[in-house]
Write a structure and sequence with these properties.
The protein has 445 residues and is an all-alpha fold. The chain has a three-stranded antiparallel sheet with strand order 1-2-3. The chain is 58% helix and 2% strand. Helix 6 packs antiparallel against helix 7. It has a domain of 109 residues: Cytochrome P450-Terp, domain 2 (Cytochrome p450-Terp, domain 2, Orthogonal Bundle). It starts with a helix and ends in a 14-residue tail after the last helix. The protein has 20 helices and three strands. Bound molecules: carboxymethyldethia coenzyme *A. Carboxymethyldethia coenzyme *A binds next to loops.
């Protein structure tokens, strides 16, 4: 058994009584109330999920296992000569809650290395994708196709004690995560590099191997590590994390669950926003004939977008109420490594201009930038200019956190998810009003 799995087993044994005690002795304790506004409004803010892997504070941003992102970057071991930590170390941290030693990280690097060979039929699935498919659709299909490999599904069909379900889920999760960089880079090669695939180099860690398979020199290895680490998890209620958890709650295997989460991530209000930011910036750039706009000109572009009924991509958030620390970490990277990049100058100008405008408009609860406002600009700078592909990069990173969550879901025996729905009429009754007649105007108070 790998060191990581042994450690995980210990952590699971320690944690299980806590969950069991809460459920059996304190299951009746009220945690939250639900309003009609929350029921109609996308269940915003209802405390109804549990995860110990990350927590999102509205003002502080994400913490992974109690650590701020800044601390995660400081504490996790780094490959020699790199500014950014091993992605494998983050997986160790998310799964066990402990910061790994150098030796522990190298064990995980080795585990991933052994599992990275992608079955041949996955390339065929990618090759068979119809023309103009979005890379996220191809990515989702490629992952789903591997469901036939699931160790978890086979064990479950054969009959396995519920307490042991986490074990085959762990095996599946590692098998899948180890293959995602190669699958993603093959999609990139297929769509944008005339199929010129670069083979994985088994002597490299995930970040470096990803850069190698993308055909990008240093510091793209660090860009990849940075990217995968900051995208890995954002507690459980966001659409991608929630979808992965929900599908896995049916005891679907990791391939079905992660493929579903990729579909959720592909929406413009979620992961696709990083692509939309680039589209929006390019429009501004084209209109400006590549000149950097003045502050007033940029304000006008922002107002024009809002007045045409569109959102400003990369701004706002369902939970956060301050600048996203994932934005700040990327901004710091840009200031250090690419301060004169023209698109970065656009993004920086937007940081000055957009929040006061969104405040003045008065609709968005959070006028500050989220991580998607910076991501694409870094990729563009290092030559990944196919912005359709950016959400696939997000998906590789997000899979790490969701896989860790799903392993723990099975370890703690979280059941099938099944909230209750009500009808509009029931809500009207609860509100103490009669249903409106067709064509009737909303009565004024
Ligand atoms: N630009 C313009 N209007 C915005 C806005 C923005 N960036 N963010 C929110 N609003 C508007 C909403 O559209 C909504 O308008 P209506 O009342 O007319 O429907 C109003 O402000 C209130 O929305 P909210 O409660 O502040 O935000 P939500 O929780 O409903 O939505 C999010 C959150 C992220 C979908 C929204 O801020 C948005 O559309 N942002 C732009 C897209 C984006 O950057 N998405 C990426 C988020 C990060 C991620 O998940 O990857």
């Amino acid at each position: 058994m790998s060191n990581l799995k042994i450690k995980l087993q210990q952590k699971i044994d320690e944690h299980r009584p806590r969950t069991q005690r809460l459920l059996h002795e304190f299951g009746h304790v009220v945690v939250d109330q639900v309003t009609i506004g929350q029921i109609i409004g996308g269940m915003r803010g209802i405390k109804s999920l549990v995860t110990d892997i990350s927590y999102l504070d509205p003002n502080e941003g994400i913490r992974y296992r109690g650590f701020t992102l800044q601390e995660v970057f400081e504490k996790l071991p780094k490959p020699k000569g790199s500014e950014m930590p091993f992605v494998e170390g983050l997986f160790y941290l998310l799964l066990t809650g402990d910061v790994p030693t150098d030796a522990e990280v190298m064990d995980v690097v080795d585990e991933f290395r052994k599992r990275r060979i992608v079955p041949r039929y996955v390339y065929e699935v990618i090759d068979a994708s119809p023309c103009c498919s979005h890379p996220m659709a191809i990515f989702s299909n490629a992952i789903l196709a591997m469901s036939r490999e699931s160790f978890f599904a086979k064990k479950h069909a054969a009959g396995i004690n519920k307490n042991n379900l986490w074990d085959p889920m762990y095996e599946d999760a590692l098998n899948l995560l180890a293959k995602l960089p190669e699958i993603a880079t093959y999609i990139h090669a297929k769509l944008y590099r005339e199929g010129k695939r670069i083979q994985s180099n088994p002597s490299l860690d995930i970040g470096a191997d990803f850069a190698h398979m993308m055909g990008k020199p240093k510091p793209y290895d660090d860009v990849s590590r940075l990217h995968f680490i900051i995208h890995a998890d954002h507690e459980s209620g966001n659409v991608s994390a929630h979808t992965g958890h929900l599908v896995a709650s049916t005891l679907a295997d990791i391939y079905m669950s992660i493929s579903s989460m990729v579909n959720g991530l592909a929406g413009p209000l979620h992961g696709l926003a990083n692509q939309e930011v680039l589209v929006w910036l390019q429009e501004v750039k084209d209109k400006m004939g590549d000149e950097i706009p003045t502050e007033d000109e940029m304000k006008q572009f922002v107002w024009d977008t809002l007045n045409s009924g569109q959102v400003i991509p990369g701004y706002g958030h369902a939970v956060l109420r301050k600048t996203d620390p994932r934005y700040t970490i990327q901004r710091d990277f840009c200031l250090k490594n690419m301060p004169n990049d023209p698109l970065f100058k656009y993004v920086d100008l937007l940081y000055k201009v957009v929040p006061p405008i969104l405040k003045e408009q008065g609709k968005a609860k959070n006028p500050w930038p989220n991580l998607d406002a910076q991501t694409g600009v870094i990729q563009w700078h290092y030559g990944v200019t196919e912005y359709d592909f950016y959400t696939v990069l997000f998906g590789v990173g997000r899979s790490i956190g969701i896989a860790a969550n799903i392993i723990w879901d099975r370890a703690l025996g979280y059941p099938l998810e099944r909230p209750k729905s009500v009808t509009t009429e029931m809500l009207e009754k609860i509100a103490g009003i009669r249903p409106m007649e067709p064509g009737e105007e909303i009565p004024s108070e």
